[in-house]
Write a structure and sequence with these properties.
The chain is an all-alpha fold and 113 residues long. It contains 4 helices and no strands. The longest helix has 27 residues.
């Protein structure tokens, strides 16, 4: 995962902390991704938010559909949702405090270059 962490200037971090926080609030990852294309800091956090968003959507669909047939999957889906919510909080804290650190388990996935 360390190979995916870019070198980012302190000026970029300081100027874009607030915008990067939006990356972890559902579809709002699009705002920093589109508005701050030139910021490596925003791009890093938008990538993390995009990966988290995709996983949230897939888990919701899978556990929602399969939960209709196997009720235990609804409980497992709720646990997954809680874990993903905690990941979002970790990402918000990292973005707000100027850290360039990937999320647990999924931080090494890079979709945005």
């Amino acid at each position: 995962m360390a190979d995916n962490i870019p070198n980012i200037s302190q000026e970029d971090i300081n100027a874009n902390k607030g915008m990067s926080v939006l990356s972890y609030i559902g579809i709002l990852f699009l705002i920093p991704m589109l508005a701050k294309k030139d910021s490596a800091y925003c791009r890093f956090h938008a990538n993390q938010g995009l990966v988290l968003f995709i996983i949230e959507i897939v888990c919701s669909l899978v556990f929602g559909i399969l939960g209709a047939f196997l009720p235990i999957l609804t409980t497992i889906g709720s646990i997954f949702s809680l874990v993903l919510f905690i990941f979002a909080i970790i990402g918000i804290v990292n973005a707000a405090t100027g850290k360039v650190k990937g999320l647990p388990l999924i931080g090494g996935i890079t979709l945005l270059k």
